[in-house]
Known about the structure:
Layout: H1 2-22, E1 32-35, E2 39-43, E3 48-53, E4 59-69, E5 72-82, E6 87-89, E7 99-107, E8 110-115, E9 120-128
Antiparallel strand pairs: 1-2, 1-9, 2-3, 3-4, 4-5, 5-6, 5-7, 7-8, 8-9
Protein name: Lipoprotein
Organism: Treponema brennaborense (strain DSM 12168 / CIP 105900 / DD5/3)
Signal peptide: 1-27
Amino acid sequence: MRTGLRFLRLAVFLLCMGIAVFGCSNAQRPYGVWKNGERTIVITDSDTFQILYGDTAEIKGFRGRADIDKNVLSLSFEEYLYKDGRWYSVAGTDLENHVEQLSFLVSKDTLRTYIQNTEKQYVYERVAETCLQ
């Protein structure tokens, strides 16, 4: 009887630990809507991103594919938002085939990014947990 009770307790403990570890696997992922004073970044769990700039003259934003490997976010630009409010392909521009590498850290409702080739750092606050696919 005691062996069965110990086994049951161990099974419940392992189940709870599994839920805690694997159920929160997205906790350190940068999925969601993030904002700082200059820009808003949206990263979806369907591997897409969108960056919108607040006060820019001509280019208002970018969108494309996002690949996450550990704490590195690789952004492949596909389109840019022009001041006329329309999205245009980056084909034929300097951003065609360009991949931006960002190191990131998620801590509660804060996203810290470090752009590797420019050495710029940004801090964002979470606006929404989830976002459109």
